Amino acid sequence: MYQARYIRTDGTADGEFTLPDALFDGVIHEGALHQAVTAYLANQRRGTVHRKNRSAVAGGSRKPWRQKGTGRARQGTIRAAQWRGGGLAFPPQHRSWTRRVPKRIRALAHSSAFNSRAAEGRVAVIERFDFDEPRTRKLTQLLAAIAGEGKVLFLTHGVNRDLYLSGRNLAGVRVLPFGQESSYDVVWAGTVIIEEAALATIGDAAEHDGSPRRRPLAGATAAADAGENEEEA
To answer: How far apart are CA 100 and CA 102, in angstroms?
Structure first.
């Protein structure tokens, strides 16, 4: 069972958060993760490059001169690769770089990516993203408080347009709704910040045993008890 930093809306740390076992089960399958990431990168290739070979170039249907008796090298067509205006010898052709990954392998790679980040302490849970309008400066201040340097992946509860617009012009920042991220997106990020409400949508949330997922900072409970005693006095 992994623990993650729990962050308030203003960026201050407030203890630890117990990550749900349905996604963070501790299994890291490097083979499945490698297969999913390489397939994702291959699927980004368009494969539209194309050049003509000698059969695709117009003209040159007859021999430029006879086979023997001229003293020159034999030639079959002026559209051969050695002629100016001829086709290429081994030109690139249209092709599809698409790779298909089985559904179970994709699911295993997806959980492995999250587990690898959680094992390294690179997962944080934020109370909520308080963005009423796009503000890049506000997001930059939040990043400085909770993430520091490196690439950051924000996973929101549903579509958060204001947060997306705030971070789309920041290098190394990616904002996606939770559940729409790929294994590559998680591995790409140095820090993954998940909105608390998004984790509540995972299947084991209803089957949770009722114990608190968030554990307060050391000393916070004692301070709260002291405050309650003062009020009673």
So the answer is: 7
Kindly report the length of the chain: 233
Q: How far is CA 80 from CA 49, 73, 92, 94, in A?
A: 21, 13, 16, 21
| The pair of three-digit structure tokens given for residue 67, joined into one six-digit string | 């086979």
Angstrom distance (rounded) from CA 224 to CA 233? 14
- Same domain as 179, residue 131: yes
pTM higher than 0.70, yes or no?
A: yes
pLDDT digits (tens, 9 = 90+) for 55-102: 999 988 899 999 999 999 999 999 999 999 999 999 999 999 999 999
Distances in Å between the alpha carbon of 8 and those of 33, 189, 197? Answer: 32, 21, 13
Cβ-in-10-Å burial (0-12, 13-18, 19+) of 21 comes to middle
Look at strands 173-177 and 123-126 and give their pairing: unpaired
Residues 6+ apart with CB under 8 A from 132: 162
Statement to judge: residues 27 and 130 lie in one domain? yes
**Which residue, of 66, 96, 126, is where some domain finishes?**
96
User: What is the tally of structural domains in the chain?
Assistant: 2
Q: Are residues 105 and 144 in the same domain?
A: yes
- State pLDDT tens for residues 26-36: 899 999 999 99
